[in-house]
Design goal:
The protein is of the alpha/beta class. Helix content is 42%, strand content 16%. It has a domain of 211 residues: Rossmann fold. It is built from eleven helices and twelve strands.
């Protein structure tokens, strides 16, 4: 089986590529001229340079492939030019699906995000059937992923074999960028987490997310969404677990959302807009934090044999990887 994977140089994508390699798949992996290739070390694959914002150049790479696994996304909670994010996450997805149809790729997996679900502020556990609309999406990342997911759903309704996976918050080793979630871990390890806000996340082992990208190719139902999650935890519970693993103190001060919003407004305008650097906090991130992102993976458990794993091993693996690679000192 020949598989074309986008996003393989990223956190989730590199784990997906390794899972397919372990299954003996013949791999073509999309890279960019600026991509770090460390995460692909040891993977036997053909590397193809390209850009989701110029999808036509990927036609030859898709030709002859049995499957497309579209993991790539512009995942940032702050971006100077939002149009770049929409071009990749929405336009790039639409055109890539179109190319796959035209060259005869038989099956597609689109990696969406749990961010497209209809979360509540009261901690309600949501699933794939919880009502949601574009107006519920806070920030450009969520809006772009929601619109990209709609492109995948529409393609499936038109007859294309597209399965949609919605990971929650993946954690584990090899988060080189790091992702916004990985940055939480790095900040904690560097003792840059003096306080916390009242919010919640669902953490999932990145290894199990990657395994599902192989399983779903054969078992997923086209057009259906599958939440891939783990444990529902408040931010304070996550910090306490990292404290138990490392021995570092967990912050005890809870900051009201209004105070966090004021800091984010200052940081976004001074650090982001005036200095041109990515701010540590953004207004949209604080607004998102008012919603508890708690989710159920029951559908994926029933239909894909997904395993909801305790998050301890993945969290410990992420911590050990960040320390080993110089992101933080040994506690």
């Amino acid at each position: 089986m020949r598989v074309f994977i986008t996003g393989a140089t990223g956190f989730v994508g590199s784990h997906v590529a390794r899972c397919y390699a372990a299954e003996g798949a013949e791999l073509r992996l999309l890279t960019r001229t600026t991509s770090r290739l460390d995460s692909l070390a040891g993977i036997d694959a053909e590397l193809v340079q390209g850009d989701l914002r110029q999808p036509e150049q990927l036609r030859s790479a898709l030709t002859g492939c049995d499957a497309l696994v579209h993991v790539a996304a512009d995942y940032r909670l702050w971006v100077r030019d939002p149009e770049e994010m929409y071009a990749s996450n929405v336009g790039g997805t639409r055109e890539l699906l179109k190319l796959a149809r035209e060259v005869g790729v038989q099956r597609v997996i689109y990696t969406s995000s749990v961010a497209t679900m209809g979360f509540k502020t009261d901690g309600t556990i949501v699933d794939e059937n919880t009502p949601v609309s574009l107006s519920d999406m806070i920030g450009h990342y969520k809006r772009s992923k929601f619109l990209g997911e709609q492109e995948a759903i529409q393609a499936a309704r038109s007859g294309q074999h597209v399965m949609i996976l919605n990971p929650t918050t993946p954690i584990g080793p090899d988060d080189a960028k790091p992702t916004p979630t990985g940055r939480i871990i790095v900040d904690f390890l560097n003792r840059n987490f003096p306080a916390y806000v009242d919010t919640g996340l669902n953490l999932v082992d990145v290894g199990e997310v990657a395994r599902m990208h192989v399983v779903a190719l054969g078992r997923g139902t086209p057009g259906e969404r599958y939440i891939l999650g783990g444990e529902n935890l408040t931010l304070k519970q996550i910090l306490d677990r990292m404290s138990a693993i490392t021995g570092l103190p967990s912050p005890r001060t809870k900051v009201p959302h209004a105070v966090a919003m004021a800091f984010a407004f200052f940081d976004e305008n001074i650090t982001g807009r005036l200095r041109g650097k990515e701010p540590r906090a953004t207004v949209e991130a604080v607004r998102m934090g008012k919603k508890m992102m708690f989710a159920s993976s029951a559908k994926a458990e029933r239909e894909l044999d997904f395993k909801v794993l305790p998050v301890y091993n993945a969290l410990r693996g992420a911590i050990e990887w960040f320390i080993a690679h110089g992101y933080a000192p040994q506690p």
